[in-house]
Design goal:
Two copies of one chain form a homodimer. Chain A has a domain at 3-111: Orthogonal Bundle (Arc Repressor Mutant, subunit A). Chain A contains seven helices and six strands, in the order H-H-H-H-H-E-E-H-H-E-E-E-E. Chain A has helices at 3-6, 12-20, 23-33, 39-46, 50-62, 84-87, 90-103; strands spanning 66-72, 77-82, 112-116, 121-122, 125-129, 141-145. In chain A, the strands form two sheets. In chain A, strands 1-2 form a two-stranded antiparallel sheet. In chain A, strand 1 and strand 2 (77-82) form a beta hairpin. The first copy, chain A, is globular and about 55 Å long. At the A-B interface, helix 2, helix 3, helix 7, strand 3 and strand 4 of A face helix 2, helix 3, helix 7, strand 3 and strand 4 of B. Strand 6 (141-145) of chain A pairs antiparallel with strand 3 of chain B, so a sheet runs across the interface. The first copy, chain A, binds a DNA duplex through helix 4 and helix 5.
DNA sequence: CTCTTGAGTTCCGAAACGGAACTTTGCTAT
DNA sequence: ATAGCAAAGTTCCGTTTCGGAACTCAAGAG
């Protein structure tokens, strides 16, 4: 299976992975949420090759996750900003952070803390049920076929 | 930067990405949560080459996300099961699903639905604050340096 | 004794990646 | 005026990884 085929699958994980499913895209997005916007700054912070950076930025723009906006005419220069669609990836990044903090942190503790402006406290991001607000874990979920399920079933989720 | 250097960064996203930051690992994990356990079944469902599948399973086992357990002696056969550490990746997968459902779903709707056993309802997974329980979005978070932050600061998150 | 199952390994050509140099446009300091 | 610099890429090349298909190994089944 090739990259391009992924987004055609009847699986939301596969479709999302077709956009952000490589290490560089995820790290670029991490930096976007830290307000990094410019080519040179991504390149310096990430240690990614310019070639690959240009490619990933182009793909993220095509996917509608980032927008390429001119921040200066003459000489014409562009920067990359999260769109609403991109901002919506925040839970994905938070989930990655949470797992890294819990399972891969050094002895010194988590490198970043997150404060919830609404309540003013440093918090852990927790997955909750939109209906009852209770915590959701792997063991208290049941997975059902939805309306967009594959006809005969095969690849899914 | 090479793969191996990622996990040494003072960034929980980078460390997590060093484990699950490629498309196949994420799709394998998706299937794990759907109770797929065997080599042949992964291979058939994913369309991944056997070569790469063997490599990814090995790496996920090394990372402690999956466990390789014999399910039959003579002939000796192994299957792959999520460990506690692996089950803890559930929020990552849910966040990916949620974004795919919201931004990449076909017109027929989401391919899968998730029922919260605790309340019995089909729900959307929402990121919440562990302190106040309120919803967390990109715009109501403030990011602070934590105890494990890089000394002089450079790559972070 | 041949067939089938299951979990891999091997081999090869194609694609993606890492590293470094080069390009382009206009500003800035000499 | 002119040499240097900044920013955002592009080009080139050698290495690594990937996709596809065939092969291996062990044991039970017909």
């Amino acid at each position: 299976m090739r990259w391009a085929e992924l987004e055609r699958e009847a699986c939301s994980v596969a479709r999302t992975v077709s956009v952000v499913g490589d290490r560089w895209s995820l790290l670029i997005l991490r930096d976007c949420f830290l307000r990094v916007r410019r080519f040179e700054e991504f390149q310096a912070r990430l240690g990614i090759t310019r070639h690959v950076l240009a490619d990933r930025l182009r793909k993220l723009v095509e996917a509608g996750v980032l927008a390429r906006v001119a921040y200066r005419q003459r000489p014409l220069r562009y920067e990359y900003r999260l769109t609403e669609k991109g901002l919506d990836l925040n839970p994905v990044l938070l989930a990655l952070v949470r797992w890294g903090d819990a399972h891969m942190a050094g002895e010194r503790g988590p490198p970043k803390l997150y404060e919830h402006r609404a309540c003013g406290h440093v918090f852990d991001p927790v997955m909750c049920c939109s209906v009852c607000g209770g915590a959701v874990t792997a063991r208290n979920i049941r997975i059902l076929d939805g309306p967009g399920a594959a006809p005969a079933a095969a690849n899914d989720a």
